[in-house]
Design a protein that fits this description.
This protein is of the alpha+beta class and 313 residues long. The chain is 37% helix and 24% strand. Helix 2 runs antiparallel to helix 3 and helix 3 packs antiparallel against helix 5. The N terminus and C terminus are likely disordered. This is S26 family signal peptidase. Keywords: Membrane, Transmembrane, Transmembrane helix.
């Protein structure tokens, strides 16, 4: 995975990570480390801000790099894609349906994680009590409770946070629309310098109600910035693109940010106004903290050296 020279360097969605070599009014000019010319010397348009999928972390003017991160991310993505393909083949054989989209598969994966999470939580709770009783009998009351119980509780809490975050982050993001500016009279083309309006559809899974914030990237205006979706609900947002004066291929982006509807809309809106990730962190905390505290309450207490129970701290 190529490194980036400055914190402004990035990995653009849908393309290999390249360095930003120039910033223009239309977007960023990028170039690969092993390329002799920028990507935009061909018909490739400049990279828009909405396409930015990652940004390098810089400390003291130097980029922080983690070896093999790209290889691991590619491997995980390949495994997920292969798993979805296998599931879709099985569904096609059993039900003669087209299968699951990437968004639907993410929800199924989230549900599987949550089910496994609940099963393992129950097994860990009952298993820890059995191990604790055996340990006390073997050592005459002077033994220590298994130190792994708390570590497993933390691991399960982390799994719950990942599953909750994935349910909000995976279905959202930027959706690309391509517009060709031309002076011909073809109805699928837009004259340079004019506007064109499309309908951006939003669909929710039948699992969780969502609050969706919709923003237009540069050159895009939307008529609704906030949409509430029930389980399985749908909504349409009108997006207007300001086509540049130049003839050619232009890209526009409509960005969605999805949040599980556990907070009042006013609270989610206030957090979102400060930063798009604040509602995610708040929802994760609302889910994870009670689980951790309840799980901590039922962990076996550590006996004292004299065999007397010690209060939890």
């Amino acid at each position: 995975m190529s490194s980036c020279s400055t914190p402004r360097s990035c990995a653009a969605a849908g393309r290999p990570p390249h360095r930003i070599v120039e910033e223009t009014d239309r977007g960023y000019i990028t170039q690969g480390d092993n390329n002799n010319a920028p990507d935009q010397v061909t018909d490739e348009p400049p990279v828009a801000q909405a396409q930015i999928a990652g940004q390098a972390l810089g400390v003291g003017g130097r980029v922080v790099t983690i070896p093999y991160t790209g290889a691991v991310a590619t491997a995980v993505g390949g495994v997920a894609a292969d798993a979805r393909q296998r599931v879709n083949v099985l569904l096609w054989r059993l039900t003669d349906t087209s299968g699951l989209s990437a968004t639907q598969f993410s929800y199924v994966l989230t549900g599987v994680l949550l089910v496994l999470y609940g099963i393992e939580s129950f097994r860990e709770g009952s298993g820890s009590r059995r191990i604790d009783r055996r340990h006390v009998r073997a050592d005459g009351g002077r033994g220590e409770a298994p130190v792994s119980a708390h570590a497993i509780l933390l691991l399960l809490t982390a799994v719950l946070v990942v599953a909750t975050t994935a349910a909000m982050v995976v279905p959202g993001g930027a959706q690309q629309y391509d517009v060709v500016a031309s002076e011909t009279e073809s109805p699928v083309l837009v004259p340079p310098g004019e506007e064109t309006t499309i309908t951006h559809g939003i669909a929710n899974s039948p699992v969780l109600p969502m609050t969706v914030f919709v923003e237009g990237a540069e050159g895009v205006r939307v008529d609704r910035h906030e949409v509430g979706l029930d389980r399985g609900g749908t909504a349409n947002v009108s997006a207007t693109f300001d086509v540049p004066d130049s003839i050619g291929h232009h890209r526009f982006y409509v960005v969605e940010r999805r949040y599980i509807a556990v907070f009042p809309k006013s609270v989610t809106r206030a957090l979102y106004t400060q930063h798009p990730w604040l509602p995610v962190l708040g929802i994760d905390a609302l889910v994870a903290v009670p689980y951790y505290l309840v799980g901590r309450r039922f962990l076996p207490a550590r006996p004292s050296r004299r065999g007397q129970p010690r209060l939890r701290t």
